[in-house]
Design a protein that fits this description.
165 residues, mainly beta, Lipocalin, 8-stranded antiparallel β-sheet, two-stranded antiparallel sheet, 3 helices, 10 strands, 13% helix, globular
C-alpha cells in the first residue's frame, strides 16, 4: 500500500530539521493500529501510522465535527532523534467527510525542548484523499470511521519519554 503525505508550504524549513520526513510517506499503519471507534474518555495522542523514518500520531481529543466538516491535529515525529529531543511538527487538518477531501490548515514546528518554535497558516486547497492514502487515514480518523488501537498519551513529550511505543 502506498500512502501519500502532503507537506506544508514551508517544506524547506522542515527538510533542515527532518530531512526524510517531507520526502518519505508512511508505508504501513502501525501494527494493530485501527479498530472501531470507542467512547474511552481522555484519549489523546495515539500512534496511527509510521514509516522507516517517522511516526504519526493523532490527537483524538482535538477532533471536532460540525456537520460534515471535521478538524484534527496530527503530529509527525522523526524516528532519527535522540531520546529527550522533542522536535516534531503538528498539522491541523481540515476534513470534508462526505466529499472525502482534506487539507492542512495550519502547521507548527516544535523545537528540541518541546516548545512551539514556529506556527503558520498552510493555506492549502481542498484535495480528494486518494483511497489507502495518508490523507484518507486522517479522514477516517476524524470522521469517526476508525480509531487507533494504541495506548493514549497526554502529550507527544510523554510518548517520546515512554520510548516511542
Amino acid at each position: 500500500m502506498i500512502i501519500a503525505i502532503r507537506t506544508a508550504p514551508f517544506a524547506l524549513a522542515l527538510l533542515t530539521a527532518f530531512p526524510a520526513v517531507a520526502q518519505e510517506a508512511p508505508t504501513t499503519p502501525a501494527e494493530g493500529s485501527v479498530t472501531a471507534p470507542s467512547t474511552e474518555p481522555g484519549v489523546q495522542w495515539r500512534l496511527f501510522s509510521q514509516s522507516d523514518t517517522s511516526s504519526y500520531l493523532v490527537d483524538m481529543s482535538s477532533i471536532t465535527r460540525t456537520g460534515d466538516v471535521a478538524t484534527a491535529r496530527v503530529a509527525r515525529v522523526s524516528k532519527r532523534l535522540a531520546p529527550g529531543d522533542y522536535r516534531h511538527v503538528v498539522d491541523q487538518f481540515g476534513i470534508r467527510c462526505g466529499a472525502g477531501e482534506t487539507r492542512v490548515e495550519t502547521s507548527a514546528d516544535v523545537a528540541e525542548d518541546g516548545e512551539t518554535a514556529d506556527s503558520y497558516a498552510a493555506d492549502e486547497p481542498w484535495s480528494r484523499a486518494a483511497p489507502n492514502s495518508f490523507d484518507a487515514s486522517v479522514r477516517d480518523l476524524a470522521c469517526g470511521e476508525v480509531e487507533p488501537n494504541r495506548p493514549p498519551f497526554d502529550t507527544i513529550r510523554a510518548w517520546i519519554d515512554a520510548g516511542r511505543p
